[in-house]
Every structure is written in C-alpha cells, then in structure tokens.
C-alpha cells in the first residue's frame, strides 16, 4: 500500500507541511490531528521527515529541560528538540531541527523506535513547534475550554488542570450540541483587527477538539465557588492570571516578550472576568446575562 509523500495540517491558521524522505517513514495522523488536515493549503513551514543516522552530532547549549520527555538546545542555525522515552533507552528516539526563521525544519526518527502508531509530529513536537510559531507575533495558546455560543461567538473558559474546563464543556453540551473547539487547549489570535479563538488537536478528558474558530466575545477565568457569579478584574490582574495559563517557549526572550504584549492587548480589548461557579447550568445563565 502506497502512502503520501507529503501532508499538510492547519492549526489556528498556521499551516505545517510535512514531507517524507522515504515512504516507509509515513505514519497516520491521530484521529484528533486528522481533523486539521488541509491537503491543498500553502505551508508556513515545511518539515522534512528522515531516518536518524546512527550518531547524531552533539547538541549545542541546553535551553530547556522538560524532565524525562524533551529537551531544547541552541543549534548553530536555529534550535533543536530531542525527544526521550524510557521505552527506547538512553538516546533520543527523534530529534527535530528548525531554522531561526521557522520556515523549514527536519525531524529525524530512529527506525528501531519508530512505531506504527507514532506520527513524527506527535507530542511534544507539535505543541513545541506551534508555541514557537505563535511566539513570532501570531498569538497565544491558553489552557482553556472554547465554546461557540448560539450567536456564533466564542466563550473561552480558562484555568489550570482541575479548574473545571471539561466539566464546563459538559454543562454546555448537556443543554444543546454546542460546538466546542477544545476542552483543554485553545489558541487566541488577532486576525484583521478581530480577536478570534481557534481549536487545537490537544484535548482534555472529554476528548473534544475541532478546527473551528469564532470571534472571541469574552474570557472567563474559572474559580470553583459556592455560587455562580462573574467578577470584574483589573487588567493587570487579568493579564497575570492568563499568563499563568499560557505555553510560550520560556527560553525564547522574543516569544516571551510578545506573549506578555499580546495578553496586555487582550485584557484591554476584551472582557476578562473571574467566573466563580458551581458546575451546573448556572454557568450558562451567568455568561448569557453578561453578554
């Protein structure tokens, strides 16, 4: 069975082209990622997948250590991401190299560790790459649940793990089949002067994700409480709370500076409130009353 020599995915209007040096290296996209496939789109960045040589060149200066999953290094022409797993010994099972302009990249995979179910861009590379692309003036990714309301507007519920994002999604779904762009990771971008929220393939417990987008009406910072109410926040406090739920590459000063600037613009342009809530239909009524 022949496989495509290339494929293209679009996340938040950012298009990644994937090219395979050998047909044997092709792997299917995950079910969630396949919803973002756009075969005819023009890529913003083209990534070539090839087999890893036995000995990789030594990495440059360490930029970031995630723990046991991935490490970022300064590379001569850009940056490098090495991915690790206890399943595959003490050497990276894949390494990615990206130029500083983020126009091209290479993903090298170890043939002995490249399982049939492992797409080259699978975690963590997809999220790391998008984080870098967003940090170059495109937008921010937030830990949140994005719901398109009955008026076609985006309502974004933001919070750390355990704050109630998936619970909030289920409350809305219990009332009607609302479109939910993600129950865990949502991207916010300013497109032609309009703030929009975009779905991502990265979902939460409810496994809700969609490539849809919508104009962003408001952002709600989730706080579990004895009763449901919206509380206004000063812009500085709102921006600080949002920053705690972002995913910029913290080792990239340019991306970090842009993220802070972007959040400052968001809190000045949009309603950003604390949503103190009970996990029931009162959430919907409260949000609608504030519209």
Describe this entry's structure for a reader:
This protein has two domains: 6-135, no CATH class; 139-290, Phosphoenolpyruvate Carboxykinase, domain 3, CATH 3.90.228. 21% of the residues lie in helices and 35% in strands. The chain has six helices and 16 strands. The chain has an eight-stranded mixed beta sheet, covered by helices on one side. Strands 9-10-14-13-12 form a five-stranded mixed β-barrel, surrounded by four helices. Helix 4 packs across helix 5 (253-269). The radius of gyration is 20 Å and the shape is globular. The chain starts with 5 loop residues before the first strand and ends with a helix.
Tag the structure with descriptive keywords.
alpha+beta; Phosphoenolpyruvate Carboxykinase, domain 3; eight-stranded mixed sheet; five-stranded mixed beta barrel; 6 helices; 35% strand; globular
